[in-house]
Amino acid sequence: MTEKLHPELPLERSSPLDPPARLGELRAKEPVSRLRYPSGHDGWLVTGHEQARAVLADRRFSNRAEITHSPIRVGGQAVPPPPPAKPGMFINMDGKEHSRYRKLLTGQFTVRRMNQLIPRVEQIVADHLAQVRAQGPGVDLVEAFALPVPSMVICELLGVPYEERDQFQRNTRTGFSLDNDFDEIMAAFREIEDYVADLVRRKRDDPGDDMLSGLLDTGELTDEEVTNMGLLLLIAGHETTANMLGIGTLALLQNPDQFAALRDDPSLVDNAVEELLRYLSIIQFGPTRVALEDLELDGSPIKKGDNVTISIPAANRDPNRFPDPDRLDVRRPASGHVAFGHGVHQCLGQQLARIEMRVGYNALIREFPHLRLAVPASEVPMRKDMGIYGVYRLPVEF
Fold it and tell me: How wide is the angle at C-alpha 17 spanned by C-alphas 171 and 256, nearest 5°?
């Protein structure tokens, strides 16, 4: 273990589908290395798969936002520490407080309930692929397919009128931009919060058969708590899956042997989804945890209060866990990746995301077996400036 500090988290990519090369170099030398945060805090960067899972599973590490330093700059500036999490903002809570909210949501995200959604997801996918065909060659697959499918699914699940999607989609784009001013980002998220708060008030007066109404019906939550829980679900429910559908399609088109394998054997789709999640790892930075006591991680002395940032892209390309990790292989048993996190804070909606990707990729390839890019790959605009990686547009022909 060396005390040499890496100046800041590497984000520069030399290849659109691969993590920053510097992350792999750090992982090869030390899977747990020192990191200087933009705030001036001296903490740690975890790039190894085993070490990442260890941190994510260890309750001696906190997820409370107010004690966390951001590993990246926003608008060229260090991000100020946020206030303590608001009621219902469970992803930034620990212990019993986190468990209470998560338990209430777990009942809404059971495997059985998610599987019941499959016919509706299939219909939404089919409808949008029909629109892709109607628009003809040159259609942007992000705008016509990758973004609207998960947006419509999460809207129907939460009870959000789909015709009101433009507001939260626009504000989400603003909120995830690494180039925008921090105040501009906070204003965008407040607009989404105000929108969801108004929606919750409407659900209180006129409940429906949806998740927000179900949370209100428990009698255990205030409107503020339901608002913040709904805010998290709405943002995560469309932004992450939309980018996986877009960049996942690009990855398959850039690896035509893998596209052909999935086209010729649709039963590979489960494996393909896990492999694409591992290979692409669209969360560009974080999560970050804070040590609640002095401890040791892979021989490194972590002090109480130290921030530890995990690089999901680096951990999922660790050759000690995934042989030949830089190769996309839809036949690879890719279980064990940390694309959805690990431990008590792992993604609550991961089964829904998997369903949307399984249905989406299979139907796309079945409908367009000769799908190809309509522009050179170098002209596909990548979301390098966003917290969640992906493609801005994906023009295709078929």
Answer: 120
- What CA–CA distance (Å, rounded) separates 63 from 35? 18
Whether the full predicted model's pTM is greater than 0.85, yes or no, is: yes
Average pLDDT, the chain: 95
How far apart CA 318 and CA 337 sit, in angstroms, is 10
**pLDDT band, residue 1 (cuts 50/70/90):** very low
Q: How far apart are CA 382 and CA 1, in angstroms?
A: 35
Q: Is 386 helix (H, G, I), strand (E, B) or coil?
A: strand
Distance separating alpha carbons of residues 289 and 306, to the nearest angstrom: 8
Two tokens at 326? 């830089």
pLDDT at 163 (0 to 100):
92
Spatial contact of 355 and 295, defined as CB atoms under 8 Å apart: no
* Strand (E) or helix (H) holding 199: helix 182-205
Tell me whether residue 39 is exposed, middle or buried, using C-beta atoms within 10 angstroms of its C-beta: 0 to 12, 13 to 18, 19 or more.
middle
Between CA 211 and CA 224 the distance in angstroms is 15
Query: Which structural domain range is residue 347 located in?
Result: 5-397
Q: What percent of the chain has pLDDT over 70?
A: 98
Cα dihedral 270→276→281→282 (10° resolution)? -100
CA pair distance 225, 214, nearest whole angstrom: 13
Tally of domains in the chain = 1
CATH code of residue 322:
1.10.630.10
